[in-house]
Recover the amino acids of this structure.
């Protein structure tokens, strides 16, 4: 692992936004995360892949403040932090778009974008500045939303994803985590969301992308971090990774280079039945 | 800069897929599309009210006489106040089955303090309203902290506060309020003079048009599409003519009572709170998707708590007003059909039982429908058995329309 990581470090010059070291998380008898490391730089898209139960969601929830790690150090923008709850994460500048998007179908796009962060004069909501800011946000993402005054229920899946991603940008975050953003989308809508991810990178944001879809991951990410059974299994620069290598790392098949490397690092290899 | 703005299209009108609404024809087409998509708003209840009025007028022309209409506004208002609280609870997708007995219990408290113990009327009313708020606070604790479903604890309240009503009344069973005391006077005999009525209409129209013009200015300054000026003029004129004519027509008899004006004022106030403040936005958000609201950092418990407190407070206020109007409090106060009338009014007025959809005006329109049915059947000398059946049928119709509209919405993508 260290070889590849050094190469990546040499190539990339963006400032490190998030850096995790030795993260452990245990739920009862299940060791969900063991000594997990992760580094994300500004202007970099890191894809987090792994099989079901590999610990991707637990890791994201730990970064988002939903879970507290049992051990390990989280450094954000160079300083060690404790992420106390989702509000604390937002305050630090960590935004998360969960898979279910958490939109209110009965409210319009503007109301959803600014939910909980309404512009207001005294107790009264200032719709005009919110609507203008909404258009600015959507424009910065080159998003295609026909109207910001229709209920979110009237939008397509890709447009809803767009609204959810745009909403994550309202607090000017430095790190955006996207949990399976393309899982329920068609081909064209997936392409739209991948464009959005690239736009986030252009804006200098650090992006963590969780996906099961290898094509999406390879299309849009700069680095791919593979988790398996709660541990770092491998890490690739995207242009150097083949789909076969990725699949091998995810599934942990023993007869491949990733498993051999894992053996060299004195981690007992998992032997498939 | 300003030159550029005037030559560029507004920032919200640049997407080529937007359906432009420029001519009145566009507006009508858009309206038609919304209706087909299940976005009915208040149209069914307005049509229903017109149909009901036309039917009773054809049967008994005195139904639409000035005297009859004034009486209707007086009788509709107290129950409308209770229905206003129900609207709030329904917006969260919850229910309060106990508003009837809460209104009976609190009004009995007022009557006992005022008549039997000789306390001042103001104090007696304030105690009743405070009791209502306290009951709502108890509901809020049960719902937010203990996690009891609202159906259960308000059903328990329905029984418990009927018991409390009997307990407060003691052996007396019935307490009559002196007709010359302040409360019956306010609810029965106080009316705006013609001059006051027209002045009030002028103020309402001026505030409406003024706020719309302000919006146009703000949006234009921000580079957004402003509302159509012609539309504002048409709506303002319609409002002025409609309210002005109504004031004239009611003025043939006694005019606007203080009581309906108070109710209308509360409706407008709640509508502004719901549509224009963060609290109102959060009520709709929690009703639409509680988990999303929670993740957005909204203190969901506070929203539920405030709504249960407001609902019971409105119930207490409504109960006191009913007592003033009937000049009596008895063991049957608030127990017979108060509950269901208030809930039915909110639903008939167009507030969805499924949460997140509705408006304060549905309390006003719903109670007008129910009061029109009640008055009309009374005029036709039909017994209350028929009235209950008709009211039940109208309620069922309203819920059926809501359910069908909900399906149409989900298939046409309007949520």
């Amino acid at each position: 692992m260290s070889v590849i990581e050094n190469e990546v470090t040499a190539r990339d010059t963006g400032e490190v936004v998030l850096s995790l070291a030795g993260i452990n998380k245990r739920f009862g008898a299940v060791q969900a995360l063991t000594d997990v490391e992760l580094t994300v730089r500004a202007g970099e898209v890191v894809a987090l892949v792994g099989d079901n139960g590999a610990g991707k969601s637990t890791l994201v929830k730990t970064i988002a403040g939903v879970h507290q790690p049992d051990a390990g150090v989280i450094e954000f923008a160079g300083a060690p932090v404790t992420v106390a709850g989702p509000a604390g994460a937002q305050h630090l500048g960590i935004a998360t778009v969960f898979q279910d998007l958490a939109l209110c179908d009965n409210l319009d796009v503007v109301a959803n974008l600014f939910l909980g962060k309404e512009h207001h004069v005294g107790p009264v909501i200032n719709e005009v500045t919110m609507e203008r800011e909404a258009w600015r946000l959507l424009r910065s993402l080159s998003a295609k939303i026909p109207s910001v005054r229709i209920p979110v229920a009237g939008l397509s899946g890709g447009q809803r994803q767009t609204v959810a991603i745009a909403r994550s940008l309202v607090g000017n975050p430095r790190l955006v985590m996207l949990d399976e953003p393309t899982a329920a989308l068609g081909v064209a809508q997936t392409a739209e969301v991948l464009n959005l991810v690239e736009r986030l990178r252009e804006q200098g944001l650090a992006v963590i992308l969780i996906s099961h879809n290898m094509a999406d991951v390879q299309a849009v990410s700069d680095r791919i971090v593979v988790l398996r059974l709660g541990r770092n299994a491998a890490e690739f620069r995207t242009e150097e990774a083949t789909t076969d290598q990725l699949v091998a790392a995810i599934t942990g098949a023993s007869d491949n280079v990733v498993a051999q490397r894992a053996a060299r690092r004195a981690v007992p290899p998992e032997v498939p039945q | 800069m300003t030159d550029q703005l005037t030559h560029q299209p507004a920032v919200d009108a640049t997407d080529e897929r937007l359906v432009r609404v420029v001519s009145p024809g566009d507006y009508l087409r858009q309206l038609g599309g919304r209706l087909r998509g299940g976005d009915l708003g208040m149209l069914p209840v307005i049509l229903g009210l017109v149909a009901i009025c036309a039917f009773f007028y054809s049967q008994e022309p005195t139904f639409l006489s000035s005297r009859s209409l004034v009486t209707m506004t007086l009788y509709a208002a107290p129950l409308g106040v209770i229905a206003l609280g129900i609207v709030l609870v329904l917006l969260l997708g919850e229910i309060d089955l106990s508003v009837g007995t809460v209104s009976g219990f609190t009004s009995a408290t007022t009557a006992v303090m005022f008549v039997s113990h000789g306390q001042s009327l103001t104090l007696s009313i304030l105690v009743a309203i405070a009791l209502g708020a306290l009951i709502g606070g108890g509901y809020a604790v049960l719902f937010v902290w203990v996690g009891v479903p609202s159906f259960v604890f308000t059903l328990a309240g329905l029984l418990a506060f009927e018991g409390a009503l009997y307990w407060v009344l003691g052996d007396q069973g019935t307490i009559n309020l002196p007709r010359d005391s302040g409360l019956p006077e306010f609810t029965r005999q106080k009316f705006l003079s013609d001059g006051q009525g027209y002045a009030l209409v002028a103020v309402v129209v001026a505030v409406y048009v003024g706020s719309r013009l302000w919006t146009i200015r703000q949006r234009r300054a921000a580079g957004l599409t402003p509302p159509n000026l012609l539309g504002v003029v048409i709506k303002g004129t319609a409002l002025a003519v409609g309210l002005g004519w109504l004031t004239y027509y009611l003025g043939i008899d006694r005019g606007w009572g203080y009581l309906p004006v108070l109710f209308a004022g509360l409706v407008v106030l709640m509508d502004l709170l719901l549509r224009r403040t963060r609290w109102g936005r959060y009520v709709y958000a929690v009703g639409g998707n509680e988990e999303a609201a929670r993740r957005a950092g909204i203190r969901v418990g506070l929203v539920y708590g405030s709504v249960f407190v407001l609902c019971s407070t409105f119930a207490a206020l409504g109960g006191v007003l009913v007592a003033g109007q009937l000049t009596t409090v008895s063991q049957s106060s608030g127990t017979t059909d108060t509950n269901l009338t208030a809930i039915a009014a909110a639903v008939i007025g167009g507030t969805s039982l499924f949460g997140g959809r509705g408006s304060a005006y549905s309390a006003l329109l719903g109670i007008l429908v129910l009061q029109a049915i009640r008055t009309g059947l009374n005029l036709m000398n039909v017994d209350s058995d028929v009235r209950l059946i008709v009211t039940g049928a109208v309620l069922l119709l309203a819920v059926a329309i809501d359910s069908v509209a909900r399906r149409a919405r989900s298939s046409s993508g309007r949520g």
User: Anything to note?
Assistant: The longest helix of chain A spans residues 187-202. Chain A is about 35% helix and 25% strand. The CA atoms of residues 64 and 89 of chain A lie 6 Å apart. Residues 1-11 of chain A have pLDDT under 50 and may be disordered.
